[in-house]
Amino acid sequence: MKSQIEINANMRKRDVIMKTLIVVDMQKDFIDGTLGTREAIAIVPNVAAKIKTYRANGDQIILTRDTHQKNYLETQEGKKLPVEHCIEGTAGWQIAKQLYVRADDLIINKVTFGHVWDRNLIKGTEIELVGLCTDICVISNALGLKAVLPETPIRVDAGCCAGVTPQSHTNALEAMKMCQIEVIGE
User: Fold this and answer.
1) For the chain, how big is the Rg over CA atoms in Å?
2) pLDDT tens-digit profile of 66-87?
3) Nearest to 110 by CA among 95, 126, 125
4) Which terminus of the chain is less hemmed in, N or C, by CB atoms within 10 Å?
5) Residue ranges of the alpha helices (H) in the chain?
6) Beta carbons of 85 and 29 less than 8 angstroms apart
């Protein structure tokens, strides 16, 4: 038989607003692979801790995965960034093992910087984004979400993001602030 304390604790858990954490492109090629940086390597423990907190609260976790095919160099992106990366099925395409992806996590393979978000996919009443690269895919997804869910609070944790360069990371954070996306962890 449950005590009154256990019943009250369970009732409080149901009253908690469910949040959605979107982990953007935390893949080997962006961390320590072909396009990796020291800054990307440095945020992996922060992102793992953030995921752990969201899981403990029973919140929704969505991970995006940059996904290219073997013809990448023939694409518009490949012509502008001629570095093969995140080719589907390769080691570089995989999400970092330190993040401990689970079967109940939603993984979205995306073929461009931002995913075309369906409002029905987001279960939380608040959204937080973390990941790589702040100045390309994080900002693209944050702005895409803001367009689809303009009244949903959206925030980006700067301490769980890294850009192509530290300066472009900072520039992206400032641009998101101008678009009413809250930036935390600076």
Assistant:
1) 17
2) 999 999 999 999 999 999 999 9
3) 95
4) N
5) 4-15, 28-31, 38-56, 76-80, 139-148, 166-178
6) yes
